[in-house]
Amino acid sequence: MPTATLREYQPKDLPDLYDVCVRTGDSGEDATGKYERPELLGDIYVGPYVHFEPELAFVLDSGERAVGYVLGTADTQGFVRRYREEWLPRFSGRYPGPPTAPVTGDDRLLDVFYHPERMLRPETAGYPAHLHIDILPPYQGTGNGRRLMEAFLDAAAAAGAGAVHLGVSLTNIRAQGFYRRLGFHEIEVAGVGRALVLGRATAR
Ligand SMILES: CC(C)(COP(=O)(O)OP(=O)(O)OC[C@H]1O[C@@H](n2cnc3c(N)ncnc32)[C@H](O)[C@@H]1OP(=O)(O)O)[C@@H](O)C(=O)NCCC(=O)NCCS
What we know:
This protein is an alpha+beta fold and 204 residues long. It has helices spanning 14-23, 39-45, 47-52, 76-87, 105-113, 144-158, 173-181, and strands at residues 5-8, 58-61, 66-73, 129-135, 163-169, 185-187, 195-201. It has seven helices and seven strands. Coenzyme A binds at residues 24, 28, 133-135, 140-146, 168, 172, 174-175, 177-178, 181.
């Protein structure tokens, strides 16, 4: 099994993180070839987090590159505001506008990209932090996910968040098992479609 060390995120990691995001972006499986604009995945699920809260981002370093990450925000409400006011304007003209009726996978990504306010749900108000975690397959299953998660929980607690939530695809059974093993429980949230919302306290 290849090994990797955990360290804080550095700006030079950004292309690797976008790559990991695509290679785990289809409910935990490789999304290569699935989207016409695969960089949109990173512009939604990686870029804004490391831009606004790099102190909450940690990577697994193989010695050659970043092969996994955890990242997120300690304050989902503040994150959504900054995403709307500072992140979206950086992309004006780079992507088509929000689709009126999303049909393709790319449409659905654009729909998510342009509507950050959907992250604000009354049911998760008591779980102010949220996160994303992804690891390339050769580095999965040997404790790296737990180490990344513990680093995030400690950093989010230090940033003042008492609890964290996340979304996981209904079809991503493996990740659901991982999260439950790490103490996450289901939060009943209306209207999230083919996903589950899970949460836990950041204290451990
Ligand atoms: C989900 C993911 C982050 C988990 O990381 P990992 O390195 O594979 O998990 P670990 O080896 O650190 O497992 C941590 C613990 O969870 C347990 N675990 C992992 N998967 C499990 C499962 N499916 N069911 C039950 N327990 C599980 C492990 O046995 C381990 O238990 P222990 O620490 O008490 O001994 C990783 O597999 C991954 O990146 N998958 C692809 C991308 C993805 O799905 N991301 C989540 C999107 S929501």
